[in-house]
What we know:
The chain is mainly α. The protein has one domain (12-128): Up-down Bundle (Four Helix Bundle (Hemerythrin (Met), subunit A)), CATH 1.20.120.910. 60% of the residues lie in helices and 0% in strands. The chain has helices at 15-37, 43-55, 62-91, 106-111, 119-128. Helix 1 runs antiparallel to helix 3 and helix 2 (43-55) crosses helix 3. The longest helix has 30 residues, at 62-91. Residues 97, 99-100, 102, 117-118, 120-121 line the site of zinc ion (ZN).
Amino acid sequence: MPANAIATPVTPDLLPQFTQLLNDQRAALLAQIRQQRGGDISRADAAANARSVAQGDWAQNDAERDLAVTLEERELDELNQISTALQAIADGSYGSCVTCGADVGVARLKANPVALRCMACQTQLEQAHGQVHAPTL
Ligand SMILES: [Zn+2]
């Protein structure tokens, strides 16, 4: 095993399992979006509700639109990550770090199936970007 000895490479027999995880994750996300935006509840209303829950108050101003946009961007971002991971499974690159090519590692991918980078590269990236979008990847 190469220098990064902790990472167990993804073998082809594991791919159906990760495909399932990613499909489940996408289904859950879509259900959540539908729930937030279902019926005649607009995105702004959903954002308002989210903020009311969080802060017990809601101001009708530009922040409302900003939050609606933020929610949408984060959800779209997550859906994009899932699509990217499913595409990687399809083209055989799943489990390889997009930055250095090392194994991302089975344990890391089970915890976060959309991870695109090995721990070392991800840590470096987060430090470089001030951890703005910390949790995933
Ligand atoms: Zn890497």
